[in-house]
């Protein structure tokens, strides 16, 4: 197989953050605004995620639509996992944050033990792809619990929480490009932190003014960011096809 993960560019991070925002507002939309409740919403999203993962695993290379649909659904699923534990089971956010952090460490340890690399540039076997998506799911759940812990349990609020996480992401970027921080560590650290950053931003936009948000509502915010994600995926598909056409023409010229 060819590598199943897209090139890490600024647009990648923007789409990832928008996916985390939709994951937060989408989960609230389905379970709260539409009245589905957490159990029904979790079951529906899990079923869709399984179908999307099957399509993703069957692909032989990176296909933008399949890849980003999985990311979007995993974002919602990670949010629901955290919410189920906190809201239904009554587990404190401090505990869920610690448990998900430990679980992520276990996934990384198992991945490294089996493959001797955590690089996302060589996701070219079934086993590596399975480890990759397991890590992604846990990062979304960890980011949800960590973001809620800071914004709600510790009383930072949505705006200050977003600023804190944005500062942390920018510091990691600076450390990587200016101080030569290890690329693999920088990627995964940023991946974890962009989850609560996107969620805090989504909550800031969608939650009522009385709760510290701007009161835009989950429906408009979810729709707006979903439209942006679809547009970005269309651009990824266009760029991929244009690059393939260019390579094909180069081959024709070289043969001629």
From TrEMBL:
Pfam families: DUF347. The keyword Transmembrane helix applies. Keywords: Membrane, Transmembrane, Transmembrane helix. The keyword Transmembrane helix applies. The chain crosses the membrane at residues 33-55, 67-85, 91-111, 131-150, 156-174, 181-199, 219-238. This is Membrane-anchored protein.
